[in-house]
Amino acid sequence: MCGIVGYIGIEGKTVQVLVEGLKRLEYRGYDSSGIAILEKGHTKVIKSEGKLDNLLKKLSIHSFNGSLGIGHTRWATHGTPSERNAHPHVSGGTSVVHNGIIENYQELKNELKKKGYVFNSDTDTEVISHLIEDFSKNGSSFEDSVRGAFKLTEGSYAVAIVSEREPEKIIALRKFSPLIIALGQGENFIASDIPAVLPYSKRVIFLEDGDVAILEKDSFRITDLNGQEVKREVFSINWDPVAIEKGGYKHFMLKEIHDQPHAVLDTIRGRVSEESGDVYFEGLENIVKGVRRVVAIGCGTSYHSCLIGRYMIENIAHVSVDVDLASEIRYRDPIIDENTLVIAVSQSGETADTSEALLEMKKRGARTLSITNVPKSKIARESDAVIYTHAGPEIGVASTKAFTTQLIVFYLLSIYLGRHTGRLSDNEGRRFIHDSFRMPQLLEMALKLDEVIKGLAMEFYHYKNFLYLARGINYPIALEGALKLKEVSYIHAEGYAAGEMKHGPIALVDESMPVVIIAPRDGIVYKKVLNNLQEIRARRGKVILITSGDEADELNTQIDRLIKIPDSSYMLSPIIAVVPLQLFAYYIAVYKGTDADQPRNLAKVVTVE
Ligand code: M6R
Asked: Would 444 be classed as within a structural domain?
């Protein structure tokens, strides 16, 4: 989704902050970009279609001295990706960058046209700059014009605005789209996400819906849309700026795959006691008391972790779990009561579908818990309690370390629930916790497959279709493996429950169809999946088997490729089994020459429905 950066402070520093910030937001996905700088009270706007490099080329032939400005990377919603539709949009002396959708823009546009405003783009955003300009022309101050304009708009927005009339201020607003301000010494910042400003400031305020922030270089205020001051807490972010660099890897995706042993360890650390067999999560006690049923919701990869979470919670805590796509549950009539715990899972904590579903479930009386990676994100704030994954910033659009840390949280949560409902003994608790301690080391071992998987990708990257099959707790890993391949390499791939093969998809199998089978040895469904393997071989399908254990070698003659992963307990096997699939998707993307970090049409944070 679009990225916003704003800066006010030191003369001559503005372009650098805006451009570097936009670069750090590239992972969100975009198709055009632009900046507006105020210099001696005059606006300079440069915009470009395509990647930021195009904008940089244009910027290099200008010089800039301004001490404030706003920048934007656009992900098209209204109007094609083009320079004309790129932000900032300017009306008179007002420049605006916007993330979100103004739902009543057509109505507002008609009114503004009647007043003589000329529209230079097909965007919904342009109504904002004209509306503010209209209020200003009628004598309102910059702040009052902004508030006046936004009282008329419906929809979602994160916005940053500068005005030639008051060139010592930036105004930022938020409603349903993420926006933060960061505080410096003699300078202040606005951004859609923390990484954009992390090298300059770790003191961050997360704006809330309806907030209007007025930033000057030495001060800031936050009000509501009526001008009433509101207080917001300043948070210290302990993310390391180095963690958002590629650290010698060619892509963020590869770095983040290799970050997993640490990320999983950081997510377990300080939350478990092997001595007592207990798991500790702050603020969860009241929420889990008397829970009869869990409903887990999420989108994309986060939905897949919910599917695995179901196996864990049902098996370890013996609590019944339903799983739904966040984008679907809102359009059903789910049976929710006060004994239902709704768990919303989201890496970004800002996914519109998940956040809306969470609010709807809350309205229906559910208790709510979120599992997210981003501190103080929307979903974290909207739920009754939150468990953070400690994956660190995930920049690659394809979710990798966020996924495995979500899985370890589900595992720990299952133990927590089991212990609190009395269904899990101390001894069982100890055993489960002990198994979790092995995960960082097992992940390290799985990552040693890197070169082998690279070779495998070389062999298979020209195939047009793939099937991924698994059963039991690894069935969602088949879905996740297929999703990873689709999104980064643009190859068609389908994940299927292996037992369902004979009910339809087997018709697709021939020598041009590689089938990736995920069957860790410890699995209770191992033998059954091997039967499916024979069915595929009989139809000349190419089989890549991902399995574990010493007996795996015996299978080597019956399949095309054998990938041996380290053995773990059955409940934790998905965390290991997904690693070769992440690497496979990554290297296929590299061989195909697609952009693994920013695949086409995708955005890291999906803030529109
Ligand atoms: O931030 P979230 O976890 O809520 O995002 C949900 C999906 O958009 C996300 O998992 C998406 O499917 C990824 N690109 C998958 O790699």
From this structure: no
